[in-house]
Amino acid sequence: MLISGYYGFDNLGDEAVLLSIVKTLRSLDGTLEITVLSARPEVTAERYGVRAVNRTDFFAVLRSIFKCDMLISGGGSLFQDVTSRTSLLYYLSIVFLGILFRKKVMVYGQGLGPLINNTDRKITSFILRRVDMITLRDNSSFELLKELGIEKNVHITADPVFTLEPSPDVRIKELLKSEGVYSDYILVAPRDWYNNELFRVEMAKALDQIYLKTGAEIVFCPFHESDIEESRSIADFMKCPHYILPKVYNPEDMLGIISLSQMVIGVRLHSLIFGALAGRPIAGISYDPKINGFLKDIGVKPVGVMKTVTADQIVEYVEAIWDIRDKVGSEIKDKVEILKQKAHENGELAISLIGGGRYGKS
Description:
Rossmann fold, single chain, globular, alpha/beta
C-alpha cells in the first residue's frame, strides 16, 4: 500500500493524519506493507515504521506506484488551489498515475477545496471521478464534490485523526512541568496567514483580558515550526504572563497537552480537532472554509474570521462558555464519539477495497 500526502514537512496536523492512517490500517491488517511518499523519507520511515521514498524523486515515485497494490491519497486538504496550485497538480498527478497503472485508488478522509480556478475544478473532477473510492472528513467537502459531478463511491466519514489516543497524563504533566507550566491553562494555537499584524494585536489584547478574567495561564502551542515565531509575534503585544512551548510535539503528546487544558483557542484546524477529541471547549478562528466546515459538523460556531475578528469578539466568546466549560466540553465529546467510529470506517473501507471490493455511496 502506498500513501501520498503532505508528509515529512513537520506539520503536526498532517503527521497526525499519517500516524492515524498507519495505526488504523495495521490494527485491521498487521501484514500490510506500507510505503509513504515523504519530503524526508528517512525521518518518516523511522518515525512510523514504514518504507518511505522521496516524494520529489520522479522515478522512485513511479516505481512505488507501479509496485503497489493500492494507492491512498490523504488525508488533509490536498485538493485545493488556495495555498498552491502546484501542490494541487502534484497530488492529482500521483492519483492519475495510480489510475493509469490500474491500481486501486482511494481518497482517504480528506477535506476538499477550496477550488477557485475553473480549470483546476475541471481537472480535479476528471481525475477524481475515476478513483475507486472517496471518503471525506466533512459535509462541506461532499457538497463541493457534488458540484464537480461526483457522487458515486463517496462516503462521508471523519478526519483520520479521530482514531488517535493521547499520551498518558503522567508523561504530559512531566512534560509541562519541564516547560514551567504548573497551573490551569488555556491553549492557543495560532498560525501566520498573510502576515496579519492587525490579528496579532487583537489576539494579544484578547489574551490579556482573558487572563485577567479567568486567571488561567496562556500557553502557545505550535503545530508547525513557523507557529513558534507567530506565537512570539503575538506575545510581543501582550502584557500578561504566557508560555510558548519551544517545539512541535508528536501527535499523542500534543493531544495529551490539549486534554489537560481548560480550553483551546485555535486557528489551526487540527488544534480544534484535537480539542474536540479531548472533550475540551474550542474557540475556532477561521482563515479557511475547512475551519467552518468542521465546526459546523460538530455544532460549534466560529468566533469570527481571522481577517476581521476583534479582541472583543474573542473575549465575549470565551466568557460565554468559561463557567460552563465542562458542560460544553462534555457535549462536544458526545458528538466526537460518532466521529471516532466514522474515522475508523476509513480504514475498514480501505481494507475492503484492497481485498477486491468497490462500494457505492453510503
